[in-house]
Amino acid sequence: MAKNPGLILVTGIFIMAGGVATVVGHNIWSGGALPVAVTVLGWMTLIKGVVLMAAPPRTLNAIPAYQPIDPNQVADSGGPDGGNGRATAIRPVMRR
Fold first, then answer.
1. 0.70 cut: is pTM over it?
2. Contact by Cβ (8 Å): 89, 80
3. Would you give the DSSP letter of residue 82?
4. CA of 56: how far to CAs of 37, 46, 64, 68, in Å?
5. Res 20 pLDDT > 90
6. Which of 6, 23, 53, 93 has its CA 20 to 30 A from that of 76?
């Protein structure tokens, strides 16, 4: 995405619009954890949209989240497959 400045701008516009809608419609700072969390999420979304629209693509290339992912370099998390890279958790169990 960082290689296409037009796509970054359009994405920033949509993200900012979502943030503005959340902040305008739900700017509640009291009443429990959930309303405050929604308001904070709206402000963070608004800020992200502004940053995407204002930051040049060169700057976004320096952020690891906007770099393309090479599937050959993804670290194995050692999840349910035992860390061997195969999906052993979803294979049928073979009986001997």
1. no
2. yes
3. T
4. 30, 18, 15, 17
5. yes
6. 93
Query: Where exactly are the structural domains of the chain?
Result: 5-63
Cα–Cα distance between 71 and 16 in angstroms, integer? 30
CA distance 36 to 94: 50
Backbone angles phi, psi at 74, to 5 degrees: -75, 125
End-to-end CA distance of the chain: 49
Q: How far apart, in whole angstroms, are the C-alpha atoms of residue 52 and residue 61?
A: 12
Which has more confidence, 27 or 76? Answer: 27
| More confident: 71 or 63 | 63
Q: Is the pLDDT of residue 6 over 70?
A: yes
